[in-house]
Write a structure and sequence with these properties.
single chain; 2 domains; Death Domain, Fas; mainly alpha
Length: 214
């Protein structure tokens, strides 16, 4: 059984592009020491997961893939999801304890001076939603953060220093910073209204629109 579990884990990790593999390691921080995670290769991460989560490594991996939006891999390898996270249900795993301490006026959801969006019933963004937007953002992430999300350049530079060489994590942490600041106002419709004026991949707005329909 352990042999099958190890083989499945390795196949899952090998199916991930390098950037998503690094994102998966990032999501494990706080559960596994960074000193073990950061240098770990795919086979080494399999060994770490088997040691840290004996008999439960596939379930843990499924939860991470869910956050990355890779439900296709969960289905392909028939990985067990946590019961409290059914497929297709918008949840927010690994909620950031810093949330609720955001700074700034939550009525200013976009760039400075923007007119607040009217109240909607749009749901709040989960981390897996932010990751999927992050994967679609291009090289102009700092421009988006400053001009359209109203974030400070110094904070964006700090994010870049903390996650060297990983643009997807830069985008992801930028969006998390915006979500922390907006607190309960960090909804799908609010982010969509913020990003509409930006020069972005149209797929981002299409994705957010699809979340509105879910």
């Amino acid at each position: 059984m352990a042999r099958d579990e190890r083989a499945t884990l390795l196949e899952v990790h090998q199916a991930l592009p390098e950037e998503q593999f690094q994102s998966l390691k990032f999501l494990l921080e706080g559960r596994i020491p960074a000193g073990l995670l950061l240098p770990a290769s795919r086979p080494e991460l399999c060994r770490i997961l088997l040691q840290r989560f004996p008999g439960n490594s596939l379930r843990v991996t499924a939860g991470l893939l869910w956050q990355l939006g890779r439900l296709d891999l969960i289905q392909r390898f028939q990985l067990p999801l946590e019961e409290q996270i059914p497929q297709g249900t918008p949840q927010e795993p690994n909620r950031d304890p810093a949330e609720g301490r955001g700074e700034g006026d939550p009525t200013l959801g976009c760039r400075p001076g923007a007119i607040p969006a009217p109240p909607t019933n749009s749901r709040r963004l989960a981390e897996k939603d932010l990751m999927q937007v992050a994967q679609r953002l291009g090289k102009e992430w700092q421009e988006v953060g400053i001009l359209h999300l109203g974030l400070e350049r110094s904070r964006l530079e700090q994010i870049q220093e903390e996650n060297p060489g990983n643009p997807i994590l830069w985008n992801f942490e930028m969006l998390r910073e915006w979500r922390r600041r907006e607190r309960h106002e960090a909804t799908v419709s609010r982010l969509q209204s913020c990003l509409e004026p930006a020069r972005l991949d149209p797929g981002i707005l299409d994705f957010l629109q699809s979340l509105q329909r879910d």
